[in-house]
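pasting input
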Amino acid sequence: MPSYTIRVNNAEKTVSVDADTPLLWVLRDELGLTGTKYACGKGLCGSCTVQYKGNAIRSCTLPISSALEANITTIEGLSPDQNHPVQQAWMELDVPQCGYCQSGQLISAATLLSKNNNPTEDEINAAMSGNICRCGTYTRIRKAIQLASSKLDK
Amino acid sequence: MKNTLKRRNFIKLTVSASGALVIGVHLQSCMPKKKIPEVYEFSPLIKIDTDGWVSLIAKNPEIGQGIKTALPMILAEELGANWNKVKVVQADYNKVYDEQWAGGSYAIILNWDLMRTAGAMVRQVLVRAASQKMNLPIEELTAKNSNIVHVKSGDSLPFEKLIVEASQIPLPEEVEFKSMDSFEIVGKSIPQVDLDKVVSGGVEYAIDVKLPEMVYATVLKNPVFEGGITSYEDNEARLVNGVVDIIELNNAAYGGRLIAPNSPNFVNGIAVIGKSTWATFKAVKKLKVVWDNSSSRKENTDEIFVRFHDQLSNTSIERKDGDIKKAKRSAALNYEAVYEVPFLAHATMEPMNCTVDFRDDFCEVWAPTQNPEALQEGLMKLFGLKPEQIKIHLPRIGGGFGRRYYVDYAMDAAILSQKTGKPVKLTWTREEDIRHDWYRPGSVQKIAASLDKEGMVIGWQHILANASRKTSLGREGGPAGTEIDEYDFPAGFVPNLQFEYGHVLSDVPLGQWRAVAASANAFAVHCFLDELAFINKMDPIDYFLEFLGPKRMVPVVGDYEFDVERLITVVEKVRQNSNWDTALPKGQGRGFAARKGAGSFIAEVVTIDTDENGKVKILRVDAAVDCGIVVNPSGAKAQVEGGILEGLCAALYGEITVKDGATVQSNFHDYQWMRMGEMPEINVEFIKNELPPRGLGEPPLPPAIPALANAIYAATGKRIRKLPIVNHLVD
């Protein structure tokens, strides 16, 4: 099997996997970063979202051989101790229910705010439209993004 | 004396005297230089250590319903613990905790008194110990913030200074509960435990478990229900890097149809074992299988629903009050309508998976299950194991909604671990998850009402025809099912009333789905009541209130009475909160429905906008809820928000169809779910009272469906009698 060196949460990692192995499974099975979740395998639900080249991407459909050019930020690397504004806002509003989709939601939200620190409600809805929550946390997520945005403004 | 308490039945423990004991469990053994606190176990649910930390056991599985927070809150309340010095510890499955299943909105209902009793017992021994130590009368002492306080003098002793003495005092036979006006934890919005871990990816779900020597597995099951395997060719699959083995799961022969109640596992398939999940996912696509579909009915949804329609006239009577025929003859108007609801999948975000280490006659399981009881029983029956040979861990679960009431995936994982002699993590692909679900039964429902001159209902006939959950699990050999129960609404409200059930046999696997039959029946009943309101040219809420009649207790069946006042209260509240009586612009509309479920009363109003193509945008949802005491308002509100979302999603998009005996849908592109932009603001108000808390997982869901359909009528004049709504919007 070929060997690949990727940069995850600012640390270099070398793994031996097939070239078509999705980044998701490298993170989960090879590197033990299980915060990134499998839910659809087809880029339909956003549970596997990570940040790559400043964008929120679906790691379940990105082969490792295409993820070599930049640092990959997973939920574990979003902040050292849950102090990213989106994480703080999520905790303040007690957002999660089952929690399974939340890593992807948080990464999408953090990515949105990194590009637009004062998004409108429509911009939030559009940026988050790729992330399904099955439990019904959408309204709290929307409020949490607005709260995080207000924290960033200050 | 050590451990004797552990084996004792917890119910017994809470009602009979028994001594607390010291056990030498070290919670912080990783800190060598610090003095290790001694831990005192006062009951299977409560431990206190010499540093003052209170450990409370969360006995039920957390599926996102907030129970890991709510039950320990009740314990902490009665104990008088300081919540900031509480550690919540998730229980494994253990008979000592009595029932640990999650379903039917029952956890709070069943555990409210139990948690209070367990907390109060330990509080009372702490008070007694303090009384001895402080030389003060028991009546003058109270527990507060993990201290026993003498209110008059202000003197106090922290729990940790009392546990040695308290551990010598037998738990009391009788307990006195705190008065509700002194509650300091229950009734407050407490952020869920593990919140910090959830937002940093640190929670270990079953799908995240990794064990030494573990291999990965996935499975391809015959997509055709009731199908088997004729032959298969796996050469290509075995060539995939990392594939270790291919194993046939001949489940029909292995465990029989129903291994144990709620433990069905008869779908045959082929499992791939590999060194990574990806290896198994890749290889499973390369299997070439000749399926044996000779036992399949090879059904199609259209044909199934034709049989449902036919069966409306071939029914058994499930309830009969008065004489509906007589009512029909004397009626000023007879009116009827037929409603249809589809099959629905659960599509939990965490797909079915399970990790099992079954070696040396010991079976250790990490299961995302709502039903550890069924899991243990299934393992015992399947492998001839004794309870002491099974250990079931209950990690946090990525959604349940009733799917995880059945433990088929865990049985497969156990079979594979036994066959490979290794720990196995079995992960189903999303496609398997959608295609091998236990679906919410679809149904056809006809309601016929007889109205008097004033438009009030004097006769009500509700006929439901479908294939039932109960029959599906045991198929022909199982108990005959019905999906309409004698206690369903509006039983007790109409003098002449008849419920009938038309039973159809089908291969489609059916099971519990959030709110179960009410998820389907509420649509028919509350859309029909809305139709009756408009026939009578009355406001739907006015008509509903007249239908309910005066505030009273309505006898329904046996001891079960329906408290009409509580329902009226939430109806009036939601009327006010939703601005029901104000006009809306053209194209907009409001719909209403109110019900009782799991002991709780909920009224909902959905407000929508429509465009010229009839496309629906939900503007807001208002809900008024009386669930008795609200244990954790933040968590309770989340349950209401979640139930409403799920109801709206089901109403708009939810549909599983069947072709040639197999499910057509396979993933989120064809089993749609609402996205954030479609989810409106939800305004929830809880009625304040001191009645015992009742269920909240299910009851918010059913009213959302008819409320949305009724809003569409109000906005467009179009009646939705068949779900999902999206099928009506095709231009």
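fyi The radius of gyration of chain B is 28 Å.
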